[in-house]
Amino acid sequence: MAALIDIIVPAYRGDSETRACLASVRASKGTRPFELVVVDDASPEPALSAGLRDLANAGRITLLAHAQNRGFVASVNEAMALHTDRDVILLNSDTEVAGDWIDRLTAHAARDVNVATVTPFSGNATICSYPRTLEPNALPEGETTRSLDAAFAAANAGRAVPIPTAVGFCMYIARRALECVGPFDEARYGRGYGEEVDFCMRAARAGFRHLLAGDVYVRHIGEVSFGGAGNERRVQAQATVDALYPEFQERLRAFLASDPPRGLRRRADLERLRVSQRPRELFVVDAADRRSLDAATAVARSAAAHAEPLLLEASDAGWVLRWPRAGEELALFLPPGKPPRRFVALLRAIGIARVVLAESHRLAPLAGALARQLSCPGIGLGARASAPAMVAAPAPPGSGPAWPELPAEWLRSGAPARPSGLRRLFARLRRGG
Asked: What's the whole-model pTM score?
């Protein structure tokens, strides 16, 4: 039988968010047994404290209640010391989990004794954010925590990439790392901000690694307990971390420049497209023809109410596949010439319902050939409004092929973040917002 793990939820504000979080944890599936430990840090919301007492009296949670507010770091340290033989997952009270997330998250640490922490993807998790990295993201239209988690689980089963620090909204910590480097530093970081970066840097110096799980998604609202407070503490925490660990900023800068999670995000994009209930329409456009490109982009975006539009832009520099739906980040870059076979296979796996050519005689032969390869209709942009799309049946989650490792040349990194950008990023790392 798998070892028991403690899931630790510090609670202070946000009664409805906390109740939803705890309900989602209790509904977790999988084989890993867990104990749900909640710390009521003298919440100013009587309804929240009363609800936690009711859950504890019913045997649904283990409750640690404080008579006075002690702060996040002290609360977490107290809970992590409750069972000194168990690994832990620190989980913000404004999160939502789904399925067998515990099994998948902990499996990454089980494969490597040098792993100290594992963090999942989320909409509001800075370096672990999705769809757009480094940004707070709302749930994409039509998605739920369960559907996004299922997409990541199917697209990236068993995959993870190293990250310079865990992000505190959801943070698995191996007991072996706690035994080696100790708990969070309450003396330096007081009531919060910076303590998980400090822990991760101490663990890294001791030879441990930190991972981003490519097959887990956890929803995170962000800043429910802290609200807009804490700016001064953030500045002080960053100064402390920079003084103690000068290597942190350098590692973070290198991570942002190379963006290792990009491939994980792209495979999740592809899986979401594959299982979408909407027909997938591929608009082939000439990027050199500004009028045609603008028209196709406008039509594609207007189609988003009933279809999943994709833009395939052609230029002398090559091809770019984009998902123009608001909030999405998908972009794959291909070399010039005929699209490679593996790219056509990728489009076939997505399930393109039809190919739409945007007023370009130059691309007509290629668009026609692409439609034939995909076994779907090919029409002109002007005909699109009167020609209903062939509705391809959406694929059941998990029924498709394992998405391959995408070629490095298809993935392009953005410009390296400026130092000032790194400082702003650090200020958000503490709570993933």
From this structure: 0.92
